Amino acid sequence: MDQVAGFNAMDTNLDHLTTEQLDVLEREIAKKYMHQVPWGAVVWGIGNCLIFIALFPLVLLEILPIWLAFPIATLNCALAYLPSHEAQHNIIAGKGRPLRWLNELVGHVSTIPLVNPYRVLRATHMEHHAHCNDESLDPDYNVHARSNADFFLKFLKNRQPAGVRDEDYRACLERLGKSELMLDATLFQGAYLLVLFGMAWSGHAIEAALLWWLPKMIAETHLLYYLSWAPHFPGHERGRYRDTRAFRSRLGNIFSAGMQYHIVHHLYPRIPLSLTPAAYRELRPLLAKRGCELGGR
Amino acid sequence: MQLIKLFFSPAVFALGFLWPLVTQVILAAELMADGWQVWLVSALVVLPFVIMAQFRGSWIWIK
Predict the structure, then answer these.
(1) The complex's ipTM?
(2) Cβ-Cβ contacts under 8 Å for A173 (sequence gap 6 or more)
């Protein structure tokens, strides 16, 4: 088996390799991209949240006009999830490592603009990985849709007071025996509403809407489209090489939050987001050989 | 628990945020002058949505 170590997947005739040898080769390639601290995600996660928070006094003190703060806040909300996602997978530092505190700090702080508590996200996201595309166990299954239009319609329905998304997350935590984490969600949501109410009744409702309410809504649409729906479409199959796909986004890799290569993340969740394109390019022949859906990438 | 449920209800969201938001949008757009009338009009704008959200479970009818 060692003989495949050091092989280049691009140059090797994969037809001659056994399944076990393909496994070894795949792991060898993936290993090169793991165990690196993504400092960019650390700065991004904390910096993005600080900029978002700073917008509030800057706008209320009339230092920054609201028309300029609105797109910045929207960008802040759209960028808030991914650093926490790196932390959820312990990519910054695993348990017992010296930088573990930083991993947890980034995890907790970066999703504040989205009003999503880190511990809830981590618990439910691990279930998404463990049961991807399983209708009854994948907490993100509710975003599955037949087309773009169907996704947006479903998203609208899920956001309503009787929508299933919050309920699916609550049921997932209950199944895991972690119902106490719902307290985190309640506190986050409660604080968010108090800020909106406080700003609204002190004469700053438009500012509250354009700094947090609308940006959060726009960002959630973007987030669920690119992180939950597009990489798992059509979402009918389960299994390591079939539950996630590569795809080509017409809006490019940055706008699609790097999710064109999400298949690499599901195979090797410890590879940092910034390295998934390179890892994908090297793994591509192997993934094609495995019968993965690569969407022309 | 009932208090928490009430706090997160559509009616409280409308009262705490949507009502003053619609009022301030009307004033900012100079559609009406400031006074109790603008609060009444914005309440009438918000009310159908609140009733839908509170009793049907959807702000926009579809669910």
Answers:
(1) 0.96
(2) A120, A123, A124, A179, A181, A182
